[in-house]
Amino acid sequence: MLFCGTCGIMVRTEAKTCPKCSSILTPAYIPGAAKEHSTPARKPLGSAARGLLIGCMVLSFVAVAAAVTLHVVTRPAHSVYLLPDGNLMAYVNFTPMHLMNMDAGGFNQVPEYQRLMNESGMGGERSIENIAVSANVDGSSLEDMAIIVTGAVDQQRISDGLKQQGPQAETYRGKTIFSNRVENRTLRYCVLDTKMLAVTMSPAAESMHAIIDKSAGSGSAPYLFKSYYSEVPFASEAWAIVHVPSFAVPDSPGGVNLDFLKNSVTILSARYLGSLSLRGEFIAENQADAANISKAAEGFLAIGKLAGSQQQADPDVTAIVNSIEVKQNGNHVVVSAAIPPEVIRKAAQKR
Predict the structure, then answer these.
(1) Quick one: how many helices (H) and strands (E) in the chain?
(2) Can you tell me the mean pLDDT for 191-204?
(3) What pLDDT, on a 0 to 100 scale, did the predictor assign at position 343?
C-alpha cells in the first residue's frame, strides 16, 4: 500500500507515481495491530482439495437422484390413490409384461374382459398400463367393487358404445357417469381423463362419486393402502391386500375351524428378480393365531410334497414346491416361493 502526500490518499498500485496527480508515492505506514487484523491472502486450493470438493458434490448429486428415483419407483400408480375403501384391494402393473412379451392373452377369451376392451377402445392388453381394484366382500358375496384401468382410453368410442346400449347417464363434478343393469347388478362407467377409466359395481353411486372426488383432489388414499402398503416388497409388479373381517370366515370344506383368520390381514405380492418371487404375508391378531396359520401352511406344504413323492411329478412343479418356505416372526407369518425363469419361458411358449 502506497501514500500520495499531494492528494492525501492511499493507493494500491505497483507504479511509483500517483494515478491522479503523478506525484511520487511513498510507502504507507500500517500499525502493527492493523497488520495483525489484516486478512491474509487466500491460498489457491491444491489438487487434492479440489478433487475432494468435486467428489463431495458428485456424491451429493447422486444421493439426491437416488432418493428421488426410489420415491418414484416405490410409489404405485395414481389410480391406487383414487380407489374407495374396501376390505380388499389389488394392483397389477402390466408394463414389464409388455417388455417381456408376456401379455395376458388368455384374458381375450373372457367375455367381460373383451367387452370392456371393445367399449373402451383400448385396443388390447398392450395398451393397458395398470389395473387397480378395491372391493367389499362379506365372505359370501361381492357387495361393492371398483376398478380403475389406466391406458389409452378412447373417450368418444366408449361414450358411443355405452349410448348404443341405452344406459342412464348423470353428471357429477363435470364428469359423465353411465350406468346400466347387467345380471341384476348396476355397473357404472366414467372416463376420468385421457388415460383412466373407472368402473364400479354397487347398488348406489357413492363409490363412483368418491373416485371422482379424489381425482379432483379431495379425499384420501384407501385405509388398507395407507396402513399396509409399506409391507409390500420393493419392486412388486402385482400385489393384493386383504382384510378378513371377523364375520367372514366360514369353515373349510373339510370342516377345519378357520377362526384364527378372523381380523387378519393378508398381503400377497409378485415381483421378478431373475425368477418370479411369490410372497404371502399373514398378519394375525396375536402370536397364537399366527402359530395356527403357520401350522396350517406347513401342513398343506407337507401334503403337497407327499402327494408329489407318491407319483411321477413334473420336475418343474417339484422345484417350485421345494422352494416354498414358511417363516413366523411374532404375529407375522410369511410364505414364499420362487418360480424359475425356465418355467416362465415354457409357460410363455405354450400360449
Answers:
(1) 11, 15
(2) 89
(3) 82
Helix H or strand E encompassing 145: strand 142-151
Tell me the C-alpha distance between 228 and 220, whole Å.
15
**Listing from the earlier edge strand, what are the strands of the sheet with 26-27?**
9-11, 2-4, 26-27
Mean pLDDT of 75-84: 88
* pLDDT for 97: 65
Write the pLDDT tens digit of every residue in 33-55.
444 444 555 556 566 676 777 77
> What residues does 248 pair with on adjacent strands?
none
Averaged over 148-176, what is the pLDDT? Answer: 78
Query: 43's torsion region: left (phi>0), alpha (psi -120 to 50) or beta?
Result: beta
Take residue 332 and report the three cell numbers written for it.
407375522
User: Which of left, alpha, beta for 235 (phi over 0: left; psi -120 to 50: alpha)?
Assistant: left
* Three-state SS at 94: coil
* Kind plus residue range of the DSSP H or E element containing 278: strand 275-283
Cα–Cα dist 309/183, whole Å? 45
Sign of CA pseudo-dihedral 207, 208, 214, 219: negative
How distant, in Å, are the alpha carbons of 5, 15, 280 from that of 21?
10, 13, 91
Question: How many residues are present in the chain?
Answer: 351
Q: Is 280 helix (H, G, I), strand (E, B) or coil?
A: strand
pLDDT of 127 above 70? yes
C-alpha cell at 98: 409388455
Longest Cα separation, the chain: 116
